[in-house]
């Protein structure tokens, strides 16, 4: 968000209640997908074909723009373009996936449907079907976020950590922000892009919190060669997702639960880790063994699987982005583009797609 406003003649201050890059960025598995949690053909039934098509195309475009940004800034963050393998599961079977692949193709997003035989032959996975698509990516999330922050600071952005915003009010053509240190900050615009953590006055009843679990294997794990070019997830609820890293680890995540407190329960992580290890082995034959790292985190979701991006209720100079679901990095790029345009006095053509509804 800060980088998107750089070089526009603005004074920009970024505030983090922790120290920068110590929050959800460090917990991300950095599967940067153009595929969103709600399939295109289902989303079309909810918000209409025209808007659903624009959402999916915007998501694909955001990943491509992020690739260009990382390349142009010269950030060394293990950024890698990847294909995505979306497997059939409890939510979508072979016929639904075939329909989904066709829906994507019709709006200009390349998608190859694979039947059971093709899936088994190419990837050794025994499911009724899958969609193979390009456009996605992966990275080291801490290195990527740090690199973008450093680029923003070189252009004059100020970054302050360990300072928490406690209240926000509009006053005429300005916004007044109160902090936990008793200070007041005055700005022309304020943007809350704080993931799933919000002031009470900015909470939205449609924004719910989920808990998730993830793990990383030891490096140089024995794995199929094709995995190094793919992100893999499935059409189940909860769904399993996994990828490899540049040092040969396999990162696995899933077993999501409703509620913001579940991930804080220390008794759950051992069980969740064991389930993820077993699911990966059953699906791929990969023997992960004892993970090097296991962790848990919270994330925000909405009923239709789309983020909420716009002005806070009753305010015109305070912007909010929330509800990124499993597409935090991709949706963050979209939010940065939409909100930065609004701050600069322009309306992005896709502003209507992600309202605070």
TrEMBL record:
<dbReference type="GO" id="GO:0016491">
    <property type="term" value="F:oxidoreductase activity"/>
</dbReference>
<feature type="domain" description="FAD dependent oxidoreductase">
    <location>
        <begin position="2"/>
        <end position="340"/>
    </location>
</feature>
<dbReference type="Pfam" id="PF01266">
    <property type="entry name" value="DAO"/>
</dbReference>
<dbReference type="InterPro" id="IPR006076">
    <property type="entry name" value="FAD-dep_OxRdtase"/>
</dbReference>
<keyword id="KW-0560">Oxidoreductase</keyword>
<protein>
    <submittedName>
        <fullName>Glycine/D-amino acid oxidase-like deaminating enzyme</fullName>
    </submittedName>
</protein>
<dbReference type="GO" id="GO:0005737">
    <property type="term" value="C:cytoplasm"/>
</dbReference>
<dbReference type="InterPro" id="IPR036188">
    <property type="entry name" value="FAD/NAD-bd_sf"/>
</dbReference>
